[in-house]
Amino acid sequence: MSKPLSIAAKTSDLMPSAEQRTKLRRWRNLKDKISGYGIMVAGIAVVGSLALIFVYLFSEVIPLLRGASVDVQKTYTLPANEQIASSPAEFITLERYEEIGATYHKNGTVQFFNALDGTESINQQVPKSADAQFSTLATSESSHGLVAYGYNNGEVAVVKAQYDLSYPDDKRVVTPSLSFPLGENPFQLDANRAAINALAIQDTSNGPVLVAATADNRLLLGMVTTKTNPITEETTTNTEVFNLPSLPEGEKVTQMQVDDNGRYLVVANDKSQLYLYNLSKPNAAERYEPVTVEGGKVTAMRFLVSTGSLAIGTEQGRVSQWLMVRDKNNRYHVTHVRDFKPLSGAVTHIAPEYSRRGFWAADDKGNIGIYYGTSARTLLIKSMGSTPIEKIGLSPINGRVLLLDKNQKISVAKVWNEHPEVSFSMLWEKVWYEGRDAPDYIWQASSGSDNFEAKMSFVPLTLGTLKAALFAILFAVPLGVMGAIYTAYFMTPKLRGMVKPTIEIMAALPSVILGFLAGLWLAPFLENHLPAIFCILIFVPLVMLIVGFIWSQFPLSIRAQIPEGWEAAILVVPVILTVWACIDISPYLEVWFFGGSLPQWFTNHDVKFEQRNALVVGLVMGFAVIPSIFSIAEDAVFSVPRHLTQGSLALGATRWQTMVGVVLPTASPGIFSAVMMGFGRAVGETMIVLMATGNSPVVNFNIFEGMRTLSANIAVEMPETAVASTHFRVLFLAALLLLALTFVVNTVAEMVRQSLRKRYSNL
Fold first, then answer.
1. Measuring CA to CA, which residue among 563, 636, 610, 600 is closest to residue 705?
2. Strand, helix or coil at 223?
3. In sequence order, what are the beta bridge partners of 405?
4. Could you tell me which of 289, 327, 322, 319 has the C-alpha nearest to residue 307?
5. At the N or C end, where does the chain have fewer CB atoms within 10 A?
6. Which residues sit opposite 440 in a β-bridge?
7. For residue 495, how far is the Cα from the chain centroid?
8. 143-153 pLDDT per residue, tens
């Protein structure tokens, strides 16, 4: 008895005392609290980081949602002599540095002045004959800067303002002056010397083009060519004049505009109608049937930049945009495409912006409106007082504006209008772009031309993202989930110990390597062996079923020689042989059934085929997604409590019945999480899509055609866009959309997972 007592005594000596246990308990509680606070802080940090990402992205996007603002800085009347005071200004401009303004008066005086305070800079005179009187004025596209004076004797004078820069004492000085592109003397446009009632001018690649409507109702087309002697620098002008078909009797021209190619003329009459003239053959110009403009007589009409569309204002204040649309017979028509919020008075003037499809309109009640064509946005309608606004002078950089009212007072205003190109309709609805015969979803955000109309529809990119993810999931989910079920439940532990790590190592493959292999090897291979892909999809499952059936017919003595869980090894050789046979027979199938080329057969049957297409992306991205799906789903199946499966087997269910009735319902939350994780990976994938597709933003679900995803689009275009530009911020909006999409998908997935978990928790 002494020996056990001594052992008990030693054991009691090792037991902590009550005081020691209290200290240990306190220390344990302290560690628990520290761990709890650490986990809480880490969780809050993660949530805070995600919130900061949202905040940062939204801070870059928020300027897109802002409208325009116009803040008047000063109002003044220009200093004028008696001659200018009695001659109202017909046109007003502002140069790109927003320092010098210019007014063009009826008497031919061009008055340059300091735009900020109205102090006079210099006056110059537009040439005219002694007996000529001003009758009308016309301007070209804003970026060309031509101004044409029409006179009552059929003469025309063309001038252009130019601004020379100098930097005395490192300070910029802008010196304005007039240049005379067609010579310093006016030229005779109408040989009959009739008064010019309406005039249009445009600078084309072949020289200026003028169209005049005379007092006796004739239309004249003048095509001007100039030559400069390189030695004497003397400029000679040659003008060809052609007679155009006149308007029907009783109709008068009120507005005219000619495009920058000199091929088309748009004429508005006094009966709210538009006529389109085809000037391609000046000797045989065509006049097309008129179209009616709703809202009364056309009181203002201007081509927007690049002259692909017209902004039109009417006597009832209606403002609309019209496009030059070509029909199936290659014949253009003036087509109404969109209306804007109207002004309350008759439109008096329309001023297009210099480098984008925006424009300003003014009415006879002192209101101004700022509009943008592509986005169909009415950015601002603002009253500038009760005096009618007659002329608008826009800065080429859209930072300042000069407003000339009926009393010849000028208001200089600061403008904020940075991102008018973006609207909900432009991003998510069909838009009718210039040069197109119908509305469409298009992404083409940049071009080499300054006159390019940005097309930034999110529909092709979003559809491409879903398309890539869908095809990848269609390929990855069956293989990943079924492979996980077999590995976790049917496979022997030894074989599972080799298969599971091998598949999980696949997740470490860089996506850029997969994209590289897809673009340079897999895409050409699939193009040359396209029938093999369909054969593999059909015959590999069929061969697996046949081999399984044959194996089941073998005597039990033979089947018993293969340990349970190693049956999958039997399929390796038949599957490899089947794949090899499908690839080997592919060229013969193309010759026998598809005329030698399946891609060409698709093309001949109106199915577009591209080498880098959604099929390639689906296979490669699916290969990249499989490890994620397999690993999570396999862990979920393997974690099903053993007593559930053993109880099912004990009640007489087969292993397959146990799998379907017990294992799958219990593991369904984990399997669903695996699928959604794979979908999230596919949605956010960049490099594979970037390298394995044609990267073309198109709207279709053709598996043989390429696409562009949101993530790939950001990767491609972000390095090339200007910081803080509209394009830059739209790419941030795409990133915000992608983040929101993955957030919504993950949230819905978690809700479904919790629902499944709750439903099958009683198992």
1. 610
2. strand
3. 389
4. 322
5. N
6. 431
7. 50
8. 889 999 999 99
